[in-house]
Automatic annotation (TrEMBL):
Keywords: Signal. This is Sel1 repeat family protein. The keyword Membrane does not apply. It holds the Pfam family Sel1. Residues 1-19 form the signal peptide. It comes from Aminobacter carboxidus. SUPFAM superfamilies: HCP-like.
């Protein structure tokens, strides 16, 4: 018997518990358990503590533990029946030794490996324990519906269970209720009331409440109430002072990445490593893996080998996130030798147990042409299964699959249908996509008024993503349907920033620097962007670099832009390396340096950035900034094209016409441009028109040239229209 269970016994036998209803409802055919009589049967009640109370609480604890085995896929109905028979045999008020009831089911029946998760059986057991007065069972039910790993996610139902647990005096229930109120999850958002509930627990010395407060104030945190990194770090430090390891991990992370404190990578990592060495905490291992792989936006030098090692250690301890990350990295060959099948098998193993996050990751893998040939049917099946388990993000992924994945044919109506399903499931991103596509008339009849109304309803409810999307629409405008309105765009971005959105603050700051939609305020705008950048936000650093390098601040500062891009690159933004390469390749206030440019492109390409690989291939084929190797260079360019980027074929055509590879090869250029044009590149049509107009590498043919220019006009390319008029 485990020591943990003996401790439970010592508590419940002491009688510090609530009594449970004495009556039993009809037996459940699935489990042989008494089902709760109804919603009111779950409500914990108070009665005089007697000898049976401790026994019933102990019995409830055993039902909860058995439910956990069902939930986690570690038992079967046949194996569990022996435990149920044992517990039913104990249901004797005359037994004074309640400790017998708390033998762990896993000790009694053993753990069945790779059993399918059975959320229904788990729920039945939790409900039975709840009807016996267990507020912990109510917490399990809340967690089940909140996490949505093995049952359909249902924030509203989760909130109701947490609320019942809170009313029964469960401090964790109060914590979850406060959190969901503060974030507006499953209940109308009431930030003040939520923070007050969490604050009361924190003031009483609850370290988990302190960590939650830190999460709510930390930049980039989901559902944060304000972006105040120093305040967040203060809460984490208080939790760490109470010897709470989760607090120590958060403090170490923020110090390592310089968020809310002066950056000290060595000290931050040492704090995390201390927790891991002392406790073998898988959360610490996953955090270290994330820091070294940039999954969390840290500023530690990327070391995918180290990251894989940490994830692998977490996986070896059975941690599901560790297994997930290890499988992904194996399949993609990141930080370890690629073993697509082994990685896919790991993800499939988790997915087959009903883990919705694994199902999503598997769908992502199967639909990524850069890793292996796309298996669209298997990807859809994986996403659909996740959706059937209530993970509405899977429906958004399915919509994206048919509207944003260049490796398969675009199908806007199918994409829109998936977004509608996600929207109907309450998914905010789904609602935004539906509104956006309705405005643009993609996959559905265009209705600007209805689409804007949908997005505005989300924005009015405080959704910062909706505000940012509306800001973008008004900033760009939509043909003659929605005139660009910089002032309206700025208003949305400013509201988004006030709601705590980092991207809202960045966009508002950009517009202030440039004087778009608001009086120009270079200092104020830069301050807004820098504040987000200094909090470790790579998008803000990219913006800061662009503002510094394009002269928006009043002068061009290429050196300052390079520094900002370097910081963004340290946060894992591979496109920042490409931007630095562009600066050194083109020259200007910084002298052109092809060798440096090539090195930045090479670094980006080796880390997986397709544009970096494309630039590297182009320069290798030309012998620009590196030794010329035509075969190797063309191979890199073709790899990018086969990976789904049609612009690679535009570059390939340019190379065949450049003379850098030898004699001009017009036929090869035409074939490459035609390939790009078939994939929607209107600039390839322009190049084909130029090629036949000038007779470069092919016989001059004005008719063909005009035909290609007209096709480009039909593709709504403004540059093509201008050129067609000139000719």
């Amino acid at each position: 018997m485990r020591i943990g269970w003996l401790l439970v016994a010592s508590v419940v036998v002491s009688g510090i518990a609530e009594a449970s209803p004495a009556g039993q409802a009809p037996t459940s055919p699935a489990l042989g358990l008494a089902s709760p009589a109804g919603p009111h049967a779950i409500q914990a009640t108070k009665s005089k503590v007697d000898a049976r109370d401790g026994f019933m609480q102990a019995l409830a604890a055993s039902y909860i533990a058995l439910g956990d085995l069902y939930r986690d896929g570690k038992t079967t109905a046949a194996a569990a029946e022996a435990a149920l028979a044992y517990y039913r045999g104990l249901d004797n008020p005359g037994r004074p030794a309640a400790i017998y009831a708390v033998i762990s089911p896993s000790d009694l029946i053993g753990v069945v490996k790779d059993a399918p998760a059975d959320p229904y059986a788990a729920s039945e057991l939790y409900l039975r324990a709840a009807s016996m007065g267990s507020s912990e069972a109510l917490m399990r039910l809340g967690d089940l519906y909140r996490e949505g790993r093995v049952v359909a996610a249902d924030p509203k139902r989760a909130y109701l269970f947490y609320d019942q647990a809170a009313k029964a005096g469960n401090p964790n229930g109060k914590l979850r209720v406060g959190e969901m109120l503060a974030r507006g999850q499953g209940v109308a958002r009431d930030t003040g009331k939520g923070l007050a509930m969490i604050g009361a627990l924190a003031d009483a010395g609850n370290p988990e409440a302190l960590v939650l407060l830190g999460d709510l104030y930390r930049p980039g945190g989901q559902g944060m109430v304000a972006m105040e990194p120093e305040k967040a770090l203060g809460f984490y430090r208080k939790a760490a002072a109470l010897s709470y390891d989760a607090g120590k991990l958060r403090v170490g992370e923020m110090i390592a990445i310089g968020q809310g404190a002066t950056q000290d990578v060595a000290a931050g990592l040492a704090m995390i490593e201390e927790v891991v060495a002392r406790t073998r905490n898988p959360a610490g291992l996953v955090l270290l893996g994330s820091l070294y792989s940039r999954a969390d936006g840290g500023v530690i030098a990327i070391d995918l080998g180290k990251a894989f090692g940490y994830f692998r250690r977490a996986a070896d301890s059975g941690d599901e996130t560790g297994l997930l990350r290890t499988g992904e990295m194996l399949a993609r060959g990141r930080g370890t030798s690629q073993s697509y099948q082994a990685g896919r098998t790991m993800l499939t193993g988790l997915a087959d147990r009903g883990d919705t996050f694994a199902l999503i990751a598997l769908g992502d893998l199967l639909s990524d042409a850069a890793v292996a040939p796309v298996d669209i049917a298997a990807a859809v099946t994986s996403y659909e299964k996740a959706a059937s388990l209530g993970h509405s993000d899977a429906l958004v992924r399915l919509g994206d699959l048919y509207s944003r994945n260049g490796a398969i044919a675009s199908d806007p109506p199918k994409a829109f249908a998936y977004y509608v399903r996600a929207s109907q499931a309450g998914n905010l991103t789904g609602k935004l996509r539906v509104g956006e596509m309705t405005v643009l008339g993609q996959g559905t009849d265009r209705n600007v008024v209805a689409g804007l109304a949908q997005m505005n309803s989300l924005a009015d409810a405080g959704d910062a993503d909706a505000m940012n999307l509306l800001g973008g629409l008004y900033q760009r405008g939509i043909g003659g349907l929605l005139p660009a309105n910089a002032a309206t765009a700025f208003g949305y971005y400013r509201k988004s920033a006030e709601a705590g959105s980092a991207m809202g603050a960045v966009h508002a700051g950009e517009m202030m620097v440039r004087g778009q939609g608001t009086p120009r305020d270079v200092a104020g705008g830069l301050q807004m962007v820098k504040a987000v950048a200094d909090a470790g936000n790579s998008d803000a650093l990219m913006s800061l670099a662009a503002l510094t390098g394009d002269g928006s601040t009043g002068k061009v500062d290429a050196s300052g832009a390079v520094l900002a891009y370097e910081r963004a690159a340290a946060l894992g933004r591979l496109d920042a390396l490409v931007r630095i390469g562009d600066i050194y390749r083109l020259g200007g206030t910084i002298p052109a340096d092809p060798a440096k440019a090539f090195d930045y492109y090479r670094r980006a390409g080796m880390a997986g950035d397709e544009t970096g690989k494309l630039r590297q291939g182009e320069m290798t084929a030309r012998g620009e900034g590196t030794r010329q190797d035509i075969v190797a260079g063309l191979e890199l360019v073709k790899q990018v094209g086969l990976g789904g980027d049609p612009y690679a074929y535009v570059v390939l055509g340019d190379l065949h016409l450049s003379g850098a590879l030898g004699p001009v090869d017009g036929d090869a250029a035409v074939a490459a441009y035609e390939n790009a044009a078939r994939q929607g590149r209107a600039d390839a049509l322009l190049r084909l028109g130029d090629l036949y107009r000038d007779g470069k590498g092919v016989p001059a043919d004005g008719g063909k040239a005009a035909e290609y220019y007209l096709k480009a006009v039909d593709a709504e390319n403004p540059a093509a229209a201008a050129r067609d008029v000139q000719n």
